[in-house]
Amino acid sequence: MVRWAWAGWLGLLVGVGTPVAAQANVDPPRVELKENYPNPFFPTTTIPFLISQDVCAKGHQPVVSLKIYNVLVQVVAIPVLTNASGSRTGGERLDSLRLRCGEYHAFWDGKYLDGRGEATPGIYYYQLTVDGERFTRKMVAQKNVTSQH
């Protein structure tokens, strides 16, 4: 049964789904790209992601890349993989790496790939690619505004 709430024209679009839909079994995601933190950020941010054990069946190690794009869809950065303690020293760029399944954190120092300096305030997109499958999210670079007296 579907119920409709009347609120003018909006009421035509709002409804309540059936209880059967709520009971459907939902498989956990094979790959989960989580929200970066902090968001908005400046000058650095961390991007967590998870590759489930389903992806690594029979010892498979997926090829993983993570790239950051500007609003013109130009690659501006490739974050580095952090180690278990969160240290970025010696971190590898996440560009076609073979990874085991598990939870990871990538770090972007806010600097452009071509060395032009820090990212300008605005909207950026980060895209995780796992064996050719893409997952994309949005983030915001925002400089801290300090009040002047």
Structure summarized in a few sentences:
With 149 residues, the chain is mostly beta strands. The protein has a single domain, classed as Sandwich (Immunoglobulin-like), CATH 2.60.40. The protein has one helix and nine strands, in the order H-E-E-E-E-E-E-E-E-E.
Detailed description of the structure:
With 149 residues, the chain is mainly beta. It has one domain (27-141): Immunoglobulin-like. 3% of the residues lie in helices and 33% in strands. The protein contains 1 helix and 9 strands, in the order αβββββββββ. The chain has one helix at residues 19-23; strands spanning 31-33, 45-51, 63-69, 75-77, 80-81, 97-98, 102-108, 122-130, 133-141. The strands form 2 sheets. Strands 3, 4, 6, 8 and 9 form a 5-stranded antiparallel sheet that branches.
Topology of this protein?
Layout: H1 19-23, E1 31-33, E2 45-51, E3 63-69, E4 75-77, E5 80-81, E6 97-98, E7 102-108, E8 122-130, E9 133-141
Antiparallel strand pairs: 1-2, 2-7, 3-4, 3-6, 3-8, 5-7, 8-9
* Tally of DSSP helical segments: 1
CATH superfamily: Macroglobulin (MG2) domain
How confident is the prediction overall: mean pLDDT?
82
Report on the biggest sheet: 5 strands, antiparallel
The structural domain count equals 1
Low-confidence stretches: 1-21
Approximate strand percentage: 25-35%
CATH overall fold name: Immunoglobulin-like
| Tally of strands | 9
- Helix content estimate: under 10%
